[in-house]
Structures are given as C-alpha cells and as structure tokens.
Design goal:
With 242 residues, the protein is mostly helical. The chain is 51% helix and 2% strand.
C-alpha cells in the first residue's frame, strides 16, 4: 500500500475541496485547467500523480477560498461546520445523520501506487480517457435487459453482449500499454493502417483494435472514425472473424 501521508494533497482532501464547491470532476478540470484524467484517477485512489500536479491542484482550491484541514482526519472540521457535502469526507463509525439525512459509513482509504510506465503525458492521458470512455459504454450495455426472440436470444441482446466483450478486450490491451507492455508484440504501422493482410493471430488482434492503438498515439483520423463506428453485430464480428 502506498501512503499519501507526506503528499501535498490526499485523495480525500481533493474530493472534499471539489465537493465544497459542488463541482463534478469535469468542472474541476475545466476551472483549474489541470488534466481531468489525473483528477479522476487521483480521487479514485488508484494513481499518485507528480508532486507538481498536486501542488497546483491544492493551490487552485485554496485560491478559490477552500481552507484545507490537515489534521489526521482530513475534512473532519469542514464536515462539522457543514462546509462540504457528506460524500466528500470519510466519517467515523458513530457519525450522526447530518442535515442532508445522509448517514455515512466508516471506511478505510486504501491507495495503491499505479506504476505507469509511459513517460509521455499526452499518450497517458489519451489512453486513460479511452479506457474510461470504454468503461462507460460497457456499463451502459450491461444495464440492458436480456431479450429473447423466437430462436433464443434476440439479435439486439447478442449485439450488445458482443460489443461489451469487444470493449473489455480493448481495455485489456490499453491497460497493458500503460504498464509498458504490448500484447502480441508492438503492432506494425502497416497492420494498424490495414496495409496488409494479417499473418499471425496477434496481427489479427492488432488490426481489430487498430483505432484504439492509433488514438492512444494521437491520431485524429482514428478518433473521428471512432465516433461513427457501429457496435459489433455478432460475437464473430467483435472478435474480427467476419
């Protein structure tokens, strides 16, 4: 476990400050002009950004009038005075119902250092954004009820199931990239550009996930194609077997 005790800002403090202003994470990123993906990952507790970013984020909230409470229980004073929303701080086991009627459960914050290998901030940001976008789409797909037709599962259900599998597989590749690994080896540019027929199974996978590779590298044409990509119609299509 990675300790945040000596950092300029903890995830709990960052959430408390943001909730004090009633901002969603996107608004905090917009107002501070700091990378949104870093704000999201830091608040989630699975990524420790550089000290320069943490200093800047803390200074931004302080410049807007938020007073940080650096006691062993971050946010406790702010909670008692009602300066933050209850979701932004961690309460004690015996905390009373507050004015909003929300009763908090005690929780121990566990933060793990995410050892991202890439040194390219742009590539890291694009990859994290694509991972999050895929997760949001998968979450939406998984909320869909299963529907049946005359011959079993409906085509709509099959399509949503196939698309969820495709996106999850893509995220597996993207996470590996963050840690400096290229599954199946580094894809050749001609494979990503569909300049040759695949000769190995890894070529087949790289070709299927080509736009994700290209978007992580900053290819704007791939990003535009992504906007018009249709969901996989079948599991075979999701696996690139059509």
């Amino acid at each position: 476990m990675f300790s945040t005790a000596n950092l300029p800002l903890t995830p709990e403090q960052a959430r408390s400050a943001r909730n004090y202003f009633g901002w969603p994470q996107s608004k905090a990123g917009e107002e501070s002009t700091l990378p949104l993906h870093k704000i999201k990952r830091f608040e989630a507790g699975n990524y420790i950004p550089d000290t320069e970013f943490l200093d800047a984020l803390r200074a931004f909230y302080e410049s807007r009038g938020f007073a940080f409470d650096d006691t062993p229980s971050p946010g406790a004073s702010a909670k008692r005075t009602g300066r933050v929303f209850p979701g932004g701080v961690v309460g004690d086991v015996a905390s009373e119902d507050n004015a909003t009627g929300y009763r908090e459960r005690a929780g121990a914050a566990r933060v793990h250092h995410m050892r991202i290998a890439t040194q390219d901030e742009g590539a890291m940001g694009r990859t994290l954004d694509l991972i999050e976008e895929n997760e949001e789409k998968v979450t939406e797909l998984l909320r869909s009820p299963v529907e049946f037709g005359f011959f079993g599962l409906s085509e709509g259900t099959k399509s949503k199931h196939a698309e969820a599998i495709r996106l999850l597989a893509e995220n597996g590749m993207l996470f590996a990239k963050l840690f400096g690994r290229e599954l199946g080896g580094k894809p050749a540019d001609e494979t990503l550009r569909k300049g040759k027929e695949p000769t190995t199974t890894s070529d087949l996978l790289h070709s299927l996930q080509a736009d994700a590779h290209l978007m992580a590298a900053g290819d704007l044409a791939a990003k535009e194609r992504r906007k018009t990509r249709k969901p996989a119609a079948s599991l075979a299509e999701a696996l690139g077997l059509n």
